[in-house]
Design goal:
This protein is an alpha/beta fold. It is built from ten helices and 14 strands. The structure holds adenosine-5'-triphosphate. One of its GO terms (molecular function) is ATP hydrolysis activity.
Length: 304
């Protein structure tokens, strides 16, 4: 399955907040959908879920118009939507039935997910008597109850401790392996790097970066290397490079134990290596620099 979002425009009270959003995502992959607060992620997802109507543009699944109600979608919204005063199992069965399951199917599936997420012993408790993290797990059980083909998760790790985060990580990896189509929105870049093959970065209602995360990292790391030298501090090495090799490298960042440098002009890493050896420098670290998603995010949308 391939879901395509094409040229979405959305206006609220004469203010345009989406200015032609386009991206796509395929089954068996997770798309990391990220952007600063107010960038337009939730609005886009709500249009996908048919909770808002776009002013123009369209959403397509395998080339045909996408109608949310015709698909089993597991949507974990930003604002959680369960009944605080109802018992956990009771509301999961009710919500499962609303989504087309029989009462038995809903109960079996609810039990499966509550067990999988380690909260089955709260089945008969009212939701609002559970801790925040455990309420989040019940919300996740509700998201997965219908064995959805499309899974949209907005900050799914919020409120989970590291042990529970690990359980959810395993679940998400399984979903991807089971060929589900996953859209994952989060401000926690580390999680996006763990699961998402592709990303779409939205800023002020426009997609400013999209594609395969590995390719994007390679492009952003282009011509940059990490180096350090035995017996020289980063500052001392910086001085040597600036003095002796300013045509070959430019220092772009200085860390405590290494420098991040950029090759200049047509210089290659072999040229650099040769020059370092000629200067009798004892190389300790010499590797291609790969930026983190956070580096890319800050660089792309940090000052806008
Ligand atoms: N119902 C609404 N009425 C008016 N403006 C809205 C409405 N919903 C969203 N907006 C505006 O649309 C813009 C995009 O908001 P949106 O909630 O989509 O951002 P977001 O990327 O999900 O942000 P966050 O990371 O903070 O959740 C914001 O300027 C917001 O104020």
């Amino acid at each position: 399955m391939r879901l395509e979002v094409k040229e979405l425009y959305k206006t609220f009270a004469e203010t345009e907040v989406l200015h032609g959003i386009s991206f796509s995502v395929e089954s068996g992959k997770a798309l990391g959908f990220l952007g600063r607060n107010g960038a337009g992620k939730t609005t886009t997802i709500r249009i996908l879920m048919n909770l808002f109507k776009a002013n123009s543009g369209g959403i397509f699944i395998d080339g045909k118009e996408f109608v949310a109600s015709e698909h089993q979608i597991g949507y974990l919204p930003e604002e959680r939507g369960l009944y605080p005063k109802k018992k956990v199992m009771e509301q999961l069965v009710y919500l499962g039935q609303l989504r087309g399951l029989s009462s038995k199917e809903a109960k079996d599936s609810a039990l499966f997910w509550l067990k999988r997420l380690g909260v089955e012993h709260y089945s008969n408790k009212k939701l609002d008597t559970l801790s925040k993290g455990n309420q989040q797990k019940v919300q996740l059980a509700e998201t997965f109850i219908c064995n959805p083909d499309i899974v949209i998760l907005d900050e799914p790790f919020s409120g989970l401790d590291p042990v529970n985060a690990q359980i959810l990580k395993d679940v998400i990896r399984e979903l991807i392996k089971e060929n589900k189509l996953v859209i994952f929105s989060s401000h926690q870049m580390g999680y996006i790097e763990e699961f998402c093959e592709d990303i779409a970065l939205i800023n002020n209602g426009e997609i400013v970066l999209k594609g395969n995360l590995k390719d994007i990292k390679r492009d952003y790391g282009m011509n940059r290397l990490i180096i350090s030298v035995v017996n020289l501090s980063s500052s001392e090495l910086e001085d040597v490079l600036t003095r002796e090799m300013d045509r070959t490298v430019k220092v772009v960042d200085k860390k405590q134990n290494h420098l991040i440098i950029e090759l200049q002009g047509n210089k290659t890493k072999n040229d650099l290596l040769k020059e370092l050896v000629e200067l009798n420098l004892d190389i300790e670290k010499f590797s291609i620099y790969e930026p983190t998603l956070e580096d890319i995010f800050v660089k792309k949308v940090g000052d806008k």
